Amino acid sequence: MAKKGNKTQKGFEEKAQVFKQEAKKNLAKAQKNLKMAEQKVELYMKKNPAKAAAIAAGIGAVVGAGIAALIKVKGRKK
User: Fold this and answer.
1) Secondary structure (3-state) at 1
2) d(CA 25, CA 21)
3) What sign has the CA pseudo-torsion 47, 50, 53, 54?
4) Residues 6 or more apart from 51 whose CB is under 8 A from it?
5) Alpha helices in 1-78 (DSSP H)
């Protein structure tokens, strides 16, 4: 029975190693995509500063309204 457990453990470790390698590849790909997106946003901001400021203000307003709504709902529960 000990041998079967060792095989199972070894199989698990091999699969874990494969998953780890895949995760590293996916992380590298995601980091590359994020860097490309960051560069595109920076370029857009430089070409369209007024639009970029308006978009940022709109996002800030939506996030602020969401936080205010959550605080209001949380205050009612007490």
Assistant:
1) coil
2) 6
3) negative
4) 44
5) 2-47, 49-77
CA dihedral defined by 17, 22, 27, 28, rounded to 10 degrees?
110
Which residue type occupies 33? N
DSSP 20: H
Whether the predicted model's global pTM rises above the 0.90 cut = no
What pLDDT, in 10s, does the model give residues 44-72? 999 999 999 999 999 999 999 999 999 98
Please state at what angle helix 2-47 crosses helix 49-77, rounded to 10 degrees: 130
What distance lies between CA 36 and its chain's CA centroid? Answer: 15
